[in-house]
Every structure is written in C-alpha cells, then in structure tokens.
User: Fold these one by one.
Assistant:
Number 1:
Amino acid sequence: MTDIFKPSVTVAAIIERDGRFLLIEEETSEGVKLNQPAGHLDPYESLEQAVVREALEETAHEFIPTALVGMYMSRYHSKSRGTEVTYLRFTFCGHAGRELDQPLDEGILRTMWMTRDEIAASASRHRSPIVLQCVDDYLAGHRTPLHLLYTHPSVFEGGI
C-alpha cells in the first residue's frame, strides 16, 4: 500500500479596512515574502480558532472571523529544501479588533495595509500563488457562513 496523501492544512485572514488589506511581510527560506496573516492548523483547535490565533500572532491584532471566503489548494516547490508540499487553505474574512502591545511572531518583519492594486503589483513577492486570488474572491463577495464548519468535540479532547 502506498502512503496516504496528506496536504498541509492552513488558515488565512482577509482583513479589509477602508479599501486596504492587512498583510504581513515575513522572512522565509525563499527570502522576504508578503502574505495574509496565515499559518498551520495546530492539534486540538478548530479552523476558526486557528485563524484567530494566527492573525493575533502575526499582526498583534485581534481577529473576529465573520465568514469563510473559500477553500484553496495549491502546490509549492521549495527550491531551498528540494521538496514539494500541497497546501489546503481555508481563508476567512472578518474584522480587526484591538491592536495589542505584543511582539509579532518570529520571522514576521512588519504588517502592512495595502490596496488590491498594490497587492497585485507585488505578485512576485507573494508567499503563495493564491494570495491575490483570495483578495479577489473577497472583493467579488464570496462568503460562506461559518456554521458550515463543524468541529467535533473529539478534536479538543485529543481523540475519540
């Protein structure tokens, strides 16, 4: 039997204010890149908890998710590691809450508020090929209610 395919599950936050989107600039193995506040789903948390945590860690802003913009799959080839990874990304939209006085996550250089056109013009610096796609889907009004996502209590307990 062959290995079971296991994509990496990630979450991302689309945070828009006055026509600008909150992005992060981060140090990666491929150099400095731009991304939405995003990261991996951790054990024992729901997708919504993950996106709230990641947004806070990477931007020092509280994040209140209001809808799911979309689910995206992409493949990434790391030149520095010589490996391929498939990502399954759940992108949420919502509101930025309070900005807290805390350091940004390791590797995050700064936060930036950018227009859609500025994001498009910086495509060569995007961490993922779907950064702009997520913004465009948000601007097109793509929204799915959060109640579509269900997390069984066994996730929080660490097993059934």
Number 2:
Amino acid sequence: MSEPKAKARSLQEVVPGVYHWYVQDDRIGARSEAYAVVDRDGAVVLIDPLPIDESLLLPLGSITAIVLTAGNHQRSAWRFRKRFNVPVWAPRDAHGLEEEADTVYGNGDTLPGGLNAFHTPGPAHVMYTLWMQQSPRGVVFLSDLLTHPDDGPPAFVPSEYQDEPVRTRMSIQRVIDHLPVDALCFAHGEPIVRDGEQVLRKALEQDSEGASAPAP
C-alpha cells in the first residue's frame, strides 16, 4: 500500500522516551498514527512510520531500526529504510509486504528498542501488539485492535473490516491478562497515557456490536 500523501509537521511526546506523530490518511479517510521509541542508549526505533518532516526525527537520536506491527502498516517503512540505512523488522508471514523485511519476528520475541512482540490476531491473522516497560509505565502499541476516535472513547473497528472480530476481542482480553498496561498507543487516534487496563476493560464492556468471546 502506498504512503499517505500528507506529511506530519509536528512530533509529540507520549511518555518519556516515546514520541508520536499523525497524518490525515487519504488512503483510508481517517487519522493514522506512528511512533518513535528512544532506547536508553539513544537508539531510535520507528514503529509503523508515516511521512514526517525528517528534521523532527533527527534530534531524537540515531535511527537504528523500523518495526511493523502488521503487513498493512508498511506506510513509509521502505523509503525510510533506504533513507536511514536501517533494517525493517516485520511479523513472520505478514500479508502483502511490498519489499522483503530484513528480519522477521514472532510471538514472544524481543525486538529493537526493548519492545516485546505479542501475537494479537483479529483485525488480521498476522497482527502484533508491541509492549515495553518504560519505567514506571507499561506501554502498549495496539496496532488495529482498537481505534480512538476524536469524539469518543476507544472502540473496535466495525466487524466487516476485520478478519475475525471475535478473536480481536479475545486478543484485547489477553493483553489485559498478560501485559502490564498503563499507556495505550493506537494506530489510529490519540494515545492515552494512563489507566490503560481500565480503558481496555471498558472497551470490552461497552462493545456496541455485542460480540462475545470464550475465555482465551
């Protein structure tokens, strides 16, 4: 999938060491988010990167890797790979990659920037939540499990746009059960910096489509 036409002109800090930017994504008619994680040694990892004025990224440190959460989040990854001469990490068997990833990863793998991979299928079979402990917070990058609209709380994408809607809800429950969650970073919508576990529980409780899933 080609890059969005828009380019971000600002960069915001989510929590210490985690930054985000967004564009109005003409490809999908909605807002899309991207993230940068700055490791303790100053190395910078880009997550699902979108077009941005590169002068905003350079002060963060040396960009050392790009991590994709799913095949449909390639965005600016291949152009940035060439621009910064860094590897792209992608999920094993990710669908529709336009170029070959330098490294593939799977459930439980440790990725650059202190990120940990957690398989969370539903919107697509090959989709990963990334988790990191950014003391004192647990930060999760949810990919497409939930979106955060401007006019309301986080919610599930309509079922017709998901491969397996019930598995999406199971994946959210597994995140609650297995990952310490404080800050939530969405692929579409403003991040939430505190009370992440309660936010996820509320999304399940208020699921407007009433999907129910058996216990994982």
Number 3:
Amino acid sequence: MSDPVRAHIAQAAWSLVRRAESWRTGRRPLLAHGPLFGVPAGARGPDAPRPVALTVDDGPDPRWTPRLLDVLDAHGVRATFFVVGERAARHPDLLRRILAAGHTIGNHTHSHPQPFAALPPALIREEIRRTQRVVADETGFTPALFRAPAGGWSRTVLGAAREQELTSVDWSVDPKDWRSPPVARIVRTVLSARRGDIVLCHDGGGDRSRTVAALDTALGRLRRDGTVFTVL
C-alpha cells in the first residue's frame, strides 16, 4: 500500500474520531496524545461554562481576512487564525493586524500540502518549522498551536508538532465553508455550536464571501443568545 493511500485511509479514520469526540463534549478525549477537539475544561474555573472557540484556516488573504476581521470586531469575537506560512510571508501586515486586534495565530504548515500525513517525516517537520519562523520573524509572536491540513493526522504528524512544543488542534463543528455552500447552510452549522466546541471556518484558499456573510449573521445570533467565545 502506497503512502498516499495509507494517508487517505488515516484521514478517513480521523474523521470518525472527530465525530465521536464531538458527541463527547465535556469528557476526556478518546486519545490521550491526539489533537484537541474541544476547548479545554477549567480554563475559566472548574464550574464556569466552557466557551466556544472560532478557528479560521488557510489565510491570511488580502481580500477576505480584513473583511472577516471587521466582522469579528463588530461582534466582539476573538478567534484563532491558523495561517499558511507562504501566505503569511506575502502578507505580514495581516499577521500584525490579527494580533493587534486581540486574536491569536496558529501554525497551518508552510504550503498546505495534502495528504499531509503521507509526507516524509523530515518534510513534515520542515513544513511546521518554516511557518514558525515566518510568524516569529514578522511579528515577534511564536505560535503555540498547530493544525494539520484537512485534519491529516498521524503519529508522525502529532509527534512532529510535540517536538516543536506545539499543541495540535482539530475541530468539532465544520460548516465545510471551503466548498462555498449556501450562506444559510453555513449559518445553520455555526449556530449548532455548543459549549466547548471548536468551530472551523476559512479566510483563504478561495472565495470566502459566503463565510464572511454567514459569520456576520451567526455570530450576531450566538452573541445575543449569550454565547461566550475564546481564543485557544
């Protein structure tokens, strides 16, 4: 069996784990050394409700990231941006704007290769290392979080992140906005977020006008309902 085939099988398996974890919100993770699928309990006190974490992948993008930042600011929501290193290197001003607005930045590899888990171990480590350097050199901020492209996890990927002192982060709510579904569908999925969920959205990799519009609607409703958001 070739490495790409094994990687695709592994990615499908992680999709099943992701679904199982999303049903177990508030419990211990199934995999002790796997990625985070929910906001860690206890960050706001043992009896406080866990907030929701909005995460944004694949940017920064000069067209969509500023629009999304405006929407987040309008609703008083802070998010975690998992940036692609080669895009970050082209738009360092957006990295600085993200941090200045109170958001945080995570590592989403340098070139977003897929299937990520099929890469040689040395290349996996270098993809992570290069983005760490780009963000640190341009902002002085060193990411502490890592997300594999398309959730392409494996022991090697998780180990490479740990070697660089990064916490791996997955998600539990996915509107699949990268496919550009109707705005109403993205809204419905984001509105399904409950305490402790990690929501996945995108500001890069294509036309993200529907994501921006959907989050403007969904975040407004969630905030009116008392949902609290946090960066990871």
Number 4:
Amino acid sequence: MSTGVRDAGQNTGVAPEFSVDPALLDAISPSGDRGGIVLGSGLKGEPLTISALRSTPTRIVLVGGLYLARQVALRAMAVGAWVVVATGRPTAWQLLQQAAGTQRDGRPSPLVQIRRLSPVELPRPSEDAPLLVVTDGGPTPQDLFPPRSPWQTTVYVLPYLHPQASATANAADMVLMQRLPPGQAELAARIWRLPPQMMRQLTGLKDDQVVALGRNLWRPLRLVTTAKEQQLLGPVRRGD
C-alpha cells in the first residue's frame, strides 16, 4: 500500500491543483489541498489529507456506510474530479448529481455519472481532470473498473468485510474503516495481520471516527463535515 495520509499544510508530496466550476464549489465547500482530499482531523484537530487522486492508478477500499463513501465522492468533486458511480442503488447516489448541478441547457452536469453494475466506457482521466470511480457492489464487488490509467482512482464500497473480499482488500493502496463488530474486526486482523490492540480499536470507533490503513500506516481520524455537506448528507453516521 502506498497512498498516504498527511497533515494539510505540511504536504511534501507533489500533487497538482485541479480546476473546477465555481458553481460546484458554491455547492460543496472546497476541501482539497494541492489535489489531495481533506478527509478529517487528527487527535489535535489538525486537518488530515489523503492523496487519493494521483498520477498512479489507485485503489481505495471503504469498509463502512454510505455516508463515508458519499463524502469521499463529494470531496473528490470539490477538487475537480469526474465521478462515475457503478451501483445497484442509484437513488442513494442521486445527491451527487444534485450537488453537481446542471449545465446551461438544463441537462445534468457530466461531472457525475450514475451507472448500473455493468462495464461501460469511462471518461478518459488526465492530470487536469482526474477520475474517481465508485464501485458500490456489496461486500464481494466485481472488479468492473480496475484502475489501469494514471489519474484514475477506484473506490470499492464494502458495507462489511467478507472473506471473499480479501483479495480486493489486500490489493488496495489504502483502506478506510469505520467501526466493526467483533467478528468483523477479527477478520480484519487476519487479512491485514493486525495486533490485538488495533483489532480492539476497530470495535470501539465512534460514528464519526475512521481508521486509515496502509503500508506502514495506521491513522485514526475524526470525520469533519461542512455545513453544506450536512445539507446533502445529513448528520455523521456509521451506516445507512
């Protein structure tokens, strides 16, 4: 795993600044730092940024509820990414289209596409227009859109850990986990070889807490939601 979490304002990595329509930034408070996505805050309240949109094909696994998945998608939109969601529950994702707004002719913004769980042609990602693909296909998702191009990030939304998802989980550059019940935490410990104290920490996370897991990375953080995001997403919660 190579995707990192860093303190905003202390970014030593190279990440571009993406452009985005001012109307979209008016709907969603900008939350990125040099192309990164501010996901939450640390124990001292410092903002923490994930390098989710990179020149390297990237996989991110989210283990938790729709709230977290939709917030990540909104923040990617806020830093100028195209977002394609492949899902069996399209109504749950329509708020992204609401946030993106409409074009001058009244048609939905092309920045957000809600698709079925079947292969489709994707927008071509680039440094100026990175692509976030969300696969919302249950606990054992099909790898319909593996990240094969620079500037493409594929996010796999897992409502819970399943043994058959271990290959997807192990291939991830970063894993974001919300609170897990004991049996799920034990499975997480087997998949990522976690020591007992980390396993116990996963079972005690609050609704607004997430653990970022990666290579040499174990970073608990607290989700931070802006007022405009609350209007779209509602209160912070573990699931839906």
